[in-house]
Amino acid sequence: MKKPCAWKFGGYWLVAVFLAVLPAFGLPAKDADVLLTVKKQGQVLGTYSLAALAAAGSVAMKVEDDAGASSEYIGVPIADLVEPLGIALGKSVSGKRLAEYIVMEAADGYRVLFSLAEIDPLFRDRPIFICYRKNGQPLPAAEGPLRVIVADEKRHARWVRQVTAIDVGSVEDALPVR
Fold first, then answer.
1. What is the pTM assigned to this prediction?
2. Does some domain include residue 59?
């Protein structure tokens, strides 16, 4: 009788581990797992599954909602999601790049605009987050699975619920040439 080969078992284990961590490297998730699509002028730069979001550097924060109730959210700074996909931040955001923006898109068509500088850590002390957990649980269906949290804003009109996409653009490309 032939003895089982440890290498084959190890090889399968290695493939399983690779497939499990694949989303953490910013590679496209399977369509069924995609929660967030990042686009630049309509072209897809990358996608994120829940596992990829969790692996992207999650942070916990306590914030008050519109009713004044305190909740703890877990999420990822938007900068940490767009920068690995080729959207340069930091000192390169100057001059014409200050006319770049991101639009957060929700499942119901609601859209909110942020300047690129607003998500850049060199411009703001407090990041803007894409959150996926609230008070230790996945976001309720009315809010999630993803939600934008802007912790230091007085009004929560830009706290987009049911976020599905981030679209990066430039005013320079959208306006007629002068």
1. 0.77
2. yes
Helix (H) or strand (E) holding 117: helix 116-119
Question: What is the structure's pLDDT at 27?
Answer: 45
| Whether the Cβ atoms of residue 113 and residue 166 lie closer than 8 Å to each other | no
Number of domains, the chain: 1
Between strands 137-138 and 129-134, the pairing is antiparallel
Q: What is the pLDDT of residues 49-91, one digit of tens each?
A: 999 999 998 999 999 887 888 999 999 999 999 999 999 999 9
Specify whether the CB–CB gap between 109 and 103 falls below 8 A. no
The C-alpha atoms of residue 156 and residue 149 are separated, in whole angstroms, by 8
Which pLDDT value is given to residue 155? Answer: 87
Q: What is the largest CA-CA distance in the chain?
A: 81
In a domain, 139, yes or no: yes
If one counts every other C-beta atom within 10 angstroms of the C-beta of residue 75, the result is 28
Give the domain CATH number at 52. 3.90.420.10
Query: Does 1 map to a domain?
Result: no
Asked whether residue 83 is domain-assigned, the answer is yes
Cα torsion 55, 60, 61, 64 to 10°: value is: 90
Residues 100-115: tens digit of each pLDDT? 999 999 999 999 999 9
Range of the domain at 91: 6-174
Question: Which helix (H) or strand (E) segment is 51 a member of?
Answer: helix 50-55
